[in-house]
Design the sequence.
């Protein structure tokens, strides 16, 4: 799960989990169709590489790792995919916080599996970034050094069990709205990774929704817990779509390259429209007194998130930025001797094999 | 121990407490792949615990389901062996616990798969496949750490020295049980001794054999583990989750 709130990226929405998955499946079919069409072969020896690249992108074909691509396209993708991967890895922390206290064994198993899925997404995305000529170790170091970001949403604390539900419903929901269009990204390995990630994320979103539904129909204390979680996570979730379009620095170029396909504000609107109906079914209140249907726009009017707060969190001063980074750095540092041992053992084994072979 | 209820509960509690400890590694493992592997093993243990607890509840016949047994018993009512409740400590201690536990659970579940109780046999048949993977994973790390660097060797030997005494409790004789744990010791030694040797580790010869878990007399660590695990469930009596 991740958002658009660090710098560049992407996005589309999701009405209900069903409609969402439909879009992912459509993207998958499109990907297969593009592969079946085939490209017109490589560029001719004297052909302008930039023109060939543009032609492939315009024809909705995929750029693959061995293709020539503009440096800026490569850099943009590396940054975006790495930030997405970092977000998966850091995003394990807020929910991981409740594994030990999950209120039933079934919920504990579901949550543990979910956090494990996020680690899997992280690895999958690092592998996609590696196709662009950078190593996972380098990317991890950029994260640890604070030179690459992760989604700001994970700098908010999980204070109650209901937060696990709210993260699933709202944060995973916003992530899916953002990510579904990425299934159609012009860079093949990223598009393929996103198809797989989106399918699992929609499953997670449903689980979160179900947690909230159970709480909202439970005891008064459980209902209050659920409402409190939605009150705290609503605006940070809206902020996941990034700054308003007028202030978004990378959007236009990413749109032209078909990395990004919808504007931040379009995606945010889609998310709001999707959530209103779901909140009604949940029996929970979206904390926005100005939320109302606009017949002319055929969309809900809503209150914007506090973008000053978003900038503050991005710049490092959110409630948990320091803890999240300290936790990741400590895990990395504490594991050093283990990784060194594994490398030494593998080297000894390789040496033994060579001796036997000789 | 007394009858199939106690036996089933003991196995369930081993698996449940092991799962709770392993899950503590989530977001903290030395490698991202290991984070996933430890979560996998925790999920296996949790899955086995749930099957065993549900069955124990049926055997008891007092209307307690898996959650009532997991969340509403105090430490003196838990029947797990002490080894699973020991703190994770460093990665070497965690791997020693994982390896020894798997080397016990694999022959246990294998024997269970052939026992007369159909329910237990089905659980054993499922769990033994998982235990075989846990054993491979634990053995590989014991070898890597034992025969890795100087530091990892020192830590792995210290971990084996620390955990080894607690393994004896796992094999305390109980001839009336569906599987008598004492009969599992040869299979355990057969697996453990060669791995320790290959890992260039020394098998401890301490005679100290702490026990008490099967009778509900635990280390100081279990009550803290349970306090954390049970806090939310107990704060909302009767609530559904």
Sequence:
């Amino acid at each position: 799960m991740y958002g658009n709130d660090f710098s560049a990226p992407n996005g589309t929405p999701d009405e209900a989990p069903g409609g969402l998955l439909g879009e992912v499946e459509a993207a998958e079919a499109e990907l297969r169709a593009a592969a079946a069409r085939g490209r017109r072969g490589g560029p001719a020896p004297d052909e302008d590489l930039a023109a060939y690249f543009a032609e492939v992108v315009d024809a909705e074909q995929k750029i693959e790792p061995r293709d020539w691509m503009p440096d800026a396209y490569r850099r943009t993708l590396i940054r975006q995919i790495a930030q997405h991967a970092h977000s998966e890895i850091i995003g394990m922390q807020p929910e991981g916080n409740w594994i030990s206290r999950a209120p039933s064994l079934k919920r504990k198993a579901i949550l543990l599996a979910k956090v494990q899925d996020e680690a899997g997404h992280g690895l999958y995305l690092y592998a996609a970034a590696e196709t662009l000529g950078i190593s996972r170790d380098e990317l991890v170091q950029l994260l640890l050094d604070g030179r690459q970001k992760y989604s700001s949403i994970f700098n908010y604390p999980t204070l109650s069990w209901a937060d696990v539900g709210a993260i699933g419903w709202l944060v995973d929901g916003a992530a899916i709205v953002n990510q579904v269009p990425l299934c159609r990204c012009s860079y093949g390995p990223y598009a393929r990774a996103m198809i797989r990630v989106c399918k699992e994320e929609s499953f997670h979103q449903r689980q979160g929704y179900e947690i909230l539904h159970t709480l909202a129909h439970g005891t008064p204390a459980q209902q209050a817990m659920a409402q409190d979680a939605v009150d705290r996570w609503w605006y940070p979730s809206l902020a996941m779509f990034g700054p308003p379009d007028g202030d978004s620095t990378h959007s236009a170029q990413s749109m032209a390259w078909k990395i990004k396909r919808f504007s931040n504000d379009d995606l945010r609107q889609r998310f709001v429209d999707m959530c209103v109906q779901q909140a009604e079914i949940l029996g929970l209140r979206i904390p926005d007194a100005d939320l109302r249907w606009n017949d002319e726009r055929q969309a809900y009017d809503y209150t914007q998130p506090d973008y000053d707060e978003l900038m503050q969190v991005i710049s490092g001063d959110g409630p948990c930025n320091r803890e999240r980074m300290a936790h990741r750095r400590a895990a990395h540092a504490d594991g050093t001797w283990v990784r060194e041992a594994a490398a030494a053992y593998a080297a000894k084994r390789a040496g033994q094999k060579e001796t036997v072979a000789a | 121990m007394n009858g199939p209820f106690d036996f089933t509960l003991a196995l369930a509690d081993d698996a449940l407490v092991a799962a709770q400890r392993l899950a503590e590694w989530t977001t903290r493992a030395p490698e991202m792949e290991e984070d996933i592997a430890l979560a996998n093993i925790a999920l296996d243990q949790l899955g086995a615990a749930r099957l065993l607890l549900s069955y124990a509840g049926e055997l008891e016949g007092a209307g307690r389901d898996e959650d009532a047994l997991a969340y509403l018993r105090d430490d003196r009512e838990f029947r797990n062996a002490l080894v699973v409740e020991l703190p994770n400590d460093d990665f070497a201690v965690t791997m020693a616990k994982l390896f020894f536990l798997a080397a016990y659970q694999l022959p246990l579940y294998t024997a269970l798969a052939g026992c007369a109780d159909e329910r237990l046999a089905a659980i054993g048949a499922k769990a033994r496949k998982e235990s075989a993977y846990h054993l491979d994973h634990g053995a590989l790390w014991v070898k890597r750490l034992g025969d890795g660097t100087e530091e990892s060797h020192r830590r792995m030997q210290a971990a084996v020295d620390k955990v080894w005494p607690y393994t004896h409790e796992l094999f305390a004789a109980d001839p009336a049980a569906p599987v008598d744990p004492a009969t599992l010791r040869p299979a355990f030694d057969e697996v453990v001794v060669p791995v320790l040797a290959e890992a260039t580790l020394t098998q401890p010869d301490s005679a100290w054999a702490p026990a008490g878990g099967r009778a509900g007399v635990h280390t100081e660590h279990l009550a803290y583990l349970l306090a954390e695990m049970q806090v939310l469930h107990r704060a909302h009596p009767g609530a559904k989750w």
Observations:
- Chain A has 14 helices and two strands.
